[in-house]
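Section handout 9: paired folding examples.
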Amino acid sequence: MVSDRRESGPEIDERPSNVAPPAESPLASPTHAAPAPPELEDCGDQLRANPLTAIEFQRRILQALVEEPGITLESARPFTARLRREERAYTIRLDGAFRRYRHGEVEPEQAAEEIKAALGVPGIDIQREGPFPRLERRENLPPGVFALDCDFDPALVVSFVWALPYGLVPLEEHDVAREWPDLSALWKQALEQLGRRTETAPASGSGEGSTLLLRWSHGDGLDAAAMLLPDLRAEAAGWVEGSLLMAAPARDMLVAIGDADPDHVARIADEVREAYERLPEPISPRLYAVG
């Protein structure tokens, strides 16, 4: 939400902690039941009644921010504003917060408190988790957000975020320079944090044999980034037939299949492209051989 950019399968004998059993398995639980066709259908939530308009929502947040001593507003346009605090400029994006607001997940005042915490305002009682890595399309990366190149697709980058109660806050260049002068330490810490998170957010399964599809879609903004985890890729490769293929059509969706059945691969490739065009915060329309 806040930005100120430097870019620079063995067979599994025991059930992996972050891959749920296929839906046909007697071990499958209702929590991880297979999704109804199509396999990449989005799961929408109820919208709140009589919400603020986007302009009203943004005005409420900006008003709460400029009432904080030391924060000034330099400019604003739809869903984006430029703030300054302690001689540092920040670009904030409010589109993600507005989506959460419309789904009843956050109030404007809570979103403003989250932004204050990201700006380093003292006395804000908000606990953060992370950092976590997050996949982004290069052209959609907000100015000033720290990111590294993605090693399997030059169209993507890996940014890093703090997880706050009401959403994710990107790390900026000065954040990284201050806390992680050794970028390998940031990468290691972020993958460890994401790995622990995926242990409590397993995949759902549909199909069987050569048509097995594993899907991670928990809606916390980190599903696609799980493709970066070597252990998750190795475990998924042990479930599918043939070589592992993975796709992240949107930030809140990651799927894995095997390439043993060409017809199944072609069908899922079509669904990935359709999901990329349809879902919010698209990442990539491609299937990647990452096994």
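Moving on to protein 2 of 2.
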Amino acid sequence: MNKTPNSIASKVVQPLDSSVPWLETQAEVTACHYEFARMNTLSLGIATEPNRFIISFTYYAHATTFSDELTSPVAMEQGKIFPIFYNPLNPQQNRQSGSPSTSRAPLFALGIAGSIVISLLYLAMMNGCY
């Protein structure tokens, strides 16, 4: 295994807060593609997520092959093997996919609430003109 200073594999650590020790296995990169930062009107033109690589990988645990994705600021070539820790009680859960979800629901709800407030302010001002 090639370890480089920028390698994701060199940043894998055993979880400290787990009551059950997580087990280590080897994961293999199946795909890597670049995703540009997305801008939207709710973020006022500011990119909410930086440019990044989306890396798909598989790993074998408890006689089953699992697939997952991780994000990285650096690319990983297809076929690269790197260590990964997984939860023996729930092998689908691993340390690399533990990143916060990129759900847009809170931002979407904030946009709807802001639109309603602006609409109400506009209607209140228009009623004051007559």
